[in-house]
Amino acid sequence: MRRIGIRQVKAVVGYEWQMMLRSRWLAAFAALFAILGVFLSYWNHALFSSTGASGMTRQSMMLLNMVLQLAPLMGVLLSSLSLSGERSDGMTRLLHTYPLTETQYVIGKFLGLFLALICAVLAGTMIAYVSLAVFGQGGSLQAIGALLLTSIPLLSAFSSLGLWLGSRVRSRLNAIAGSLFLWFFLVYIYGMGVMAALPILPRTMQEGALAILLTLNPVEAVRIGAVFWQGQGYIYGPTFYYWEQAIRSPVGMIGSVVLVILYSMIPLLFAMRKLRKGE
Known about the structure:
GO terms for molecular function: ABC-type transporter activity. The chain has helices at 2-21, 24-48, 55-88, 102-134, 141-168, 172-197, 203-216, 218-229, 241-247, 250-276.
């Protein structure tokens, strides 16, 4: 039974992979990554090439911010459209006519979406860094690897969140609207809300509350974690020095991996539960 289950998951992964390769949305996001990366590289080179400062640091931070904003949108939008489209077309009703469980179906879709999204980010980021070489800045494979490591937890978390959303809505239009709302709230509104709410709390509770609130949002957690992993936590002030030491410790590494798994698994479990209940 276990081997049959794995084979069925592989079949769903292969199907989803082929569908995503034909998707104009995926090609558009990869092209957007490349275009914005090239534009930011050119803009940065034109403004700061004569200052003698470290251009690669600025460019890496620009591309990092680009990943933090676009990767969540890619993940939640494409995954929600994929599942909601199949639900509206009646394809999910056929699950009961095949030896395929809802768990195998959701896991297969998640893996297929995740692999396709990673390839799109890789293609766009590679083109952006090739542009650095054209502008005389020199591309860095290490920086590319850092951006990919940043995009992996975001794409994983928001792909699973998109599948949960797709299991809740019946039309592609609702999937698009819900995806844009979740993306805008988690990427932009959430952080501002946290900063506005913290002064209301007693000072003794602010640091603990900040840690919990940042952990609840994968975008903020990845943003802070990326800075700490680069050893630049000092920019947040001396209080966060201990955060950096904790995150870069072995226990912190294990905790980070567990957190990424939770970001992905919890929405997937809710999506499986919804599909089991039927249309």
